[in-house]
Design brief:
Blueprint (H helix, E strand, L loop, with lengths): L7 E6 L9 H8 L7 H13 L6 H19 L4 E6 L6 H10 L4 E6 L6 H17 L7 E4 L7 H20 L7 E8 L3 H5 L12 H16 L6 E7 L14 H7 L7 E5 L8 H4 L1 H12 L3 E4 L7 H15 L42
Parallel strand pairs: 1-2, 1-3, 3-4, 5-6, 5-7, 7-8
Helix pairs in contact: 1-2, 3-12, 4-5, 6-8, 6-12, 9-11
Length: 365
């Protein structure tokens, strides 16, 4: 609960291709070290090529960066917002070089992912450490990180509003709320990673902290609704060998299992995602929607937080929380799991296949 001085915010994104020629090089970056041939990558590339080889994620981050800058200005907070990606330009190391050239020495990172797992938290911390090492800035520049914000009101509010609007739209079409099924969707991860998500000294139940956080947020979203139809947590976008167990059920399987005699409509909620990127556009808006419509269900997909004012304001709240050393008791959280901690615990969110790599903003390893 200290009040450190920060020079700038580092917005950390996943990155995405911005043209057909970028697609395979981008996918090589994403799968680096796995030895996946280009022929296999081309199978995934078809999703991007369907949309002109362009992922919307970079444009989203440009918009989010601008929105954060506007909110900082409105609050009179003098902080620059830098932006760097894990898998595509501008890269995190470019942002670190930019920071050094501007004379910045202490950065506060915001990763565009709300939940706890290797790919959504620890890997960003490893990315920060690698960027410092690659640029020779380790020991010169410090990068901290805001807490995981899965249950911060600013992140949850857009989902509450989105589900409310979706249920109202279906009612306007004469659909009984009792015949609606809500599917909260997030990215599937290997079960071994899920079980190691979050601190190792806490038992979060099946799926570890990752699944527990999503379930807790979905419960908050549904508790805020005027009507409360049936709902479930589902997963999407699994990859990897069939021999490796991943979190289930897959959203398409869940749709196929719904009783057509009892359900008229489904609401798809991209609960695990900050913005509309390829896995939302393809896995939800294309594959899941087609599966639902083939079964005869009416479908409504709710928005991601994007640059919703509540979300943008919430992110700056997290920045000021760190800058001002706000006491834990005064940090907002909508579930009993939060508020999450600033500094990650030992062995938090281990990747059993890759092992532990240097990471910032946590207790070693």
């Amino acid at each position: 609960m200290t009040a450190p001085h920060y020079d700038a915010i580092l917005l950390a994104g996943f990155g995405g291709p911005e043209g057909q020629d970028d697609v395979i090089p981008f996918l090589r970056n994403v799968t680096r070290g796995r030895g996946i041939p280009d022929e296999r990558l081309e199978e995934v590339a078809t999703h991007y090529r369907h949309f002109g080889g362009i992922s919307p994620i970079n444009d989203h981050n440009r918009a989010l960066k601008a929105a954060l800058e506007a909110e900082l200005s409105a609050r009179g907070v003098n902080l620059t917002v830098l932006w760097g990606n894990r898998n595509w330009a501008p890269y995190l190391k470019d942002a670190v070089v930019d920071a050094h050239e501007r004379g910045y020495r202490r950065l506060l990172g915001i990763a565009t992912s709300a939940y706890s797992s290797y790919s959504s938290c620890r890997q960003y911390r490893e990315d920060f450490a690698a960027a410092l090492d690659d640029t020779g800035m380790a020991g010169v520049i410090t990068i901290d990180k805001v807490r995981q914000f899965f249950d911060h009101p600013g992140f949850v509010a857009p989902f509450i509003a989105g589900v409310s609007d979706a249920l109202a739209e279906l009612e306007d079409h004469g659909i009984d709320p009792g015949r609606v099924h809500v599917l909260f969707s997030t990215h599937s991860i290997p079960i071994t990673d899920a079980e190691r998500s979050g601190p190792r000294d806490v038992d979060f139940g099946p799926g570890g902290a990752y699944a527990a956080q999503h379930r807790a947020v979905a419960e908050v979203v549904m508790a805020a609704q005027r009507t409360r139809p049936a709902w479930q947590l589902v997963y999407q976008s699994r990859s990897g060998p069939p021999s490796m167990p991943w979190l289930e059920p897959d959203i398409v399987d869940a749709i196929d299992s719904l009783d057509r005699e009892a359900v008229d409509a489904i609401v798809i909620v991209p609960l695990g995602f900050v913005s509309d990127h390829m896995e939302v556009m393809w896995d939800l808006d294309t594959e899941a929607r087609e599966a639902a419509e083939q079964r005869g269900f009416r479908v409504v997909r709710t928005p991601t937080p994007g640059v919703d004012p509540a979300f943008v304001s919430g992110l700056i709240d997290l920045v000021q929380e760190r800058m001002n050393g706000v006491d834990e008791a005064d940090r907002p959280a909508l579930t009993e799991l939060g508020p999450w901690f600033d500094v990650c615990r030992p062995a938090c969110c281990e990747n059993v296949r890759a092992g532990f790599k240097p990471a910032v903003a946590g207790v070693a390893p």
